[in-house]
Every structure is written in structure tokens, then in C-alpha cells.
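User: Let's play a game. I give you a shape written as C-alpha cells, and you guess the letters that built it. Ready? Here's round one.
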């Protein structure tokens, strides 16, 4: 089934064509350069940038896939959650394509799509032992949630952040140190030369259910930063490297511990880590080690599919179109808040 997937939930405009899990063509236009000087995403700027990019990216992926719009079997678009103005761009564009072509259109839950990203491939399909049920951790700048996925379309929420998302905490840490935006990659780079045990940092809610909290960790880091007068240290100082490594280790331990607990609680056949934070090499390594100890396979998307992308939207869209789930009428609206549990209600 040939499906065009469109994504505009935050600050990446993305389009892709997939068939099954195979990605035939994809394009992503990042907005990092537009938002960097503000230290975070400015919704109005994001929406305008999506408007400028969505049609061109769609033409590009169809050309790369050597397909005409009329040769597709269906359309998929991120309907939520996300920034409402940003979401409306791709949703409106997709509805226009559906009206013009008569192709069926489905609305995809962005977070659920992230959890299924390990099924994507370009040449070799994923190993056959990647199977349900799965315990899935989605950690990004806007979301940190644990799910029990019974199949492609049935998800149960096990836990979520009660305040900051994990990626948001990385961004705020980087902003505190003046490292720039986005914070994940720059914090990881700084932490490479640091001692993760140099600062004793809390592991919020480590043994308290499957919910997360990162605001306390962020506050503790701010206190240590001031207490040790680190604002006067150069960016390359050992003290800042140690603080970055300690922060990263604390965040990773919380995420991994909760994922392992979810596997044990649900009896899942495997575990998934996905979302932008899943690019972090320390998190991947710690998760692999912890899950190896309990004999549970771990699956993570290639880094290119950890960030927001159109391929994951297209893939989940195919599964929904096959079952005629969430077919969007022209009156459909964007859903800035859309819990995964209710995605297919």
C-alpha cells in the first residue's frame, strides 16, 4: 500500500512515501535555524515555515519515489498532539489533496507513530522477532510516555511525565549553560568528557510507579550551577562536563528503570525506545544493558527516524487505512491534545 505521510506538529516539516514499512522517499525541513536565537520553538514562526515548506516537500518525495499523486493508495497526516497552528498546516494541506484526488485520508497520533518507528526500513526489513506486545518508551522534547502496545493500533498508557518532558529538560539544561538550542545533542557532546558520578543528582520518582518527573532534577542542577559558581566557567571546563555527564546519567537511569519496570509489569515480548531523546547514546547503551539482563530484546529506530519524520506517519497511516480507522472528513480539526489511549476510540 503506497501512502504519503505528512508531519507538521512542531518545528519540522516532513513528508514521506512508504509501502509497508519500507521508506521509498522522505524529506524533512528543520527549523532549528529559525528558533535558535529564541532558545525554543516560537509557534507563529513554526506555522509560517510549515506553510512555506509543505507543498514543496510533497512534490519532492513524490518525484524521488517516481510516483504521481494519483498512483497513491492513501494519505496520512499528523492530526495531533502538537502546536495547533503548526498541525493545521499539514492537516489543511492533506485535506486539500484528499478533496482533489479522492484518496482516503487518515489522521495519525504523532506519539503513537513514534513508538512504531522501529518497524521502518529502507533495504532490509526489521528482524522477524520484532513483534507484539511491546513496552514502548517515547521520549522527546514534548512527550515522555510509556505504553503497552498490544498491536499496531491498540495502545495502553502506562505512565507519563507529570511536568517537563525528558527532551525539554535537556533543552533547559543546555540553555542554563549557554550551550544553545536544541539541547540534547550539545549536552551529550559536552558530557563525553565528564564524570557521571561527579555530582550527586536525584533520580525523581525512580521507584514510584511508571510516571516521570524531571522538573526537580532541572531545579537541582540550577542550584548546583549557582552553588559552584559555574556561570563563570568556560564551556569547555571540566566542571561543566561533569555536570552535563551527571545530569545525563540521572535522566537516563530514570528512563531505563521505568522501561524495565514496564516490561516486567506487562510481560511484553520486547521493548522500544523512540523519540528524539532516543538518539542519546548513553540512553541506548544503558537501556540495552538493562534489558539484556532480563532477556528482553530492545528495539530503537535509526537516529534519522527518532526525530519527527513523515515516514512514521505514513507507516501508522497505512495500518489505519487498512482497517478504515480514523478516516478524516473535510470538517476534521487538528487535535493539539490527543491522548494515545483515545487514538482509536
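Assistant: Ready! My guess for every position:
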Amino acid at each position: 500500500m503506497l501512502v504519503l505521510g505528512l508531519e507538521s506538529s512542531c518545528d519540522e516539516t516532513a513528508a514521506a512515501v512508504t509501502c509497508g514499512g519500507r521508506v521509498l522517499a522522505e524529506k524533512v525541513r528543520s527549523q532549528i535555524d529559525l528558533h535558535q536565537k529564541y532558545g525554543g520553538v516560537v509557534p507563529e514562526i513554526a506555522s509560517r515555515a510549515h506553510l512555506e515548506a509543505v507543498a514543496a516537500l510533497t512534490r519532492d518525495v513524490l518525484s524521488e519515489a517516481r510516483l504521481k499523486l494519483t498512483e497513491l493508495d492513501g494519505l496520512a497526516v499528523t492530526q495531533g498532539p502538537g502546536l495547533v497552528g503548526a498541525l493545521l498546516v499539514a492537516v489543511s494541506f492533506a485535506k486539500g489533496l484528499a478533496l482533489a484526488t479522492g484518496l482516503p485520508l487518515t489522521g495519525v497520533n504523532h506519539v503513537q507513530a513514534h513508538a512504531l518507528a522501529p518497524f521502518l526500513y529502507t533495504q532490509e526489513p526489521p528482524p522477524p522477532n520484532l513483534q507484539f506486545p511491546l513496552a514502548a518508551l517515547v521520549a522527546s522534547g514534548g512527550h515522555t510516555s510509556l505504553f503497552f502496545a498490544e498491536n499496531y493500533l491498540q495502545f495502553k498508557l502506562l505512565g507519563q511525565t507529570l511536568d517537563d518532558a525528558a527532551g525539554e529538560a535537556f533543552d533547559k539544561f543546555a540553555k542554563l549553560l549557554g550551550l544553545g538550542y536544541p539541547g540534547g545533542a550539545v549536552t551529550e557532546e559536552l558530557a563525553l568528557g565528564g564524570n557521571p558520578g561527579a555530582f550527586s543528582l536525584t533520580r525523581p520518582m525512580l521507584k514510584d510507579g511508571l510516571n516521570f518527573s524531571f522538573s526537580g532534577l532541572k531545579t537541582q542542577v540550577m542550584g548546583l550551577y549557582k552553588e559552584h559558581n559555574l556561570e563563570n566557567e568556560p564551556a569547555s571546563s571540566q566542571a561543566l562536563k561533569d555536570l552535563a555527564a551527571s545530569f545525563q546519567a540521572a535522566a537516563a537511569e530514570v528512563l531505563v528503570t521505568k522501561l524495565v519496570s514496564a516490561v516486567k509489569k506487562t510481560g511484553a515480548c520486547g521493548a522500544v525506545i523512540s523519540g528524539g531523546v532516543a538518539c542519546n547514546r548513553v540512553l541506548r547503551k544503558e537501556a540495552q544493558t538493562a534489558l539484556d539482563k532480563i532477556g528482553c530484546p530492545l528495539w530503537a529506530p535509526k537516529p534519522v527516524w527518532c526525530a519527527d519524520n513523515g515516514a512514521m506517519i505514513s507507516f501508522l497511516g497505512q495500518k489505519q487505512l487498512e482497517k478504515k480507522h480514523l478516516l478524516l472528513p473535510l470538517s476534521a480539526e487538528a487535535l493539539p491534545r490527543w491522548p494515545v489511549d483515545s487514538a482509536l476510540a
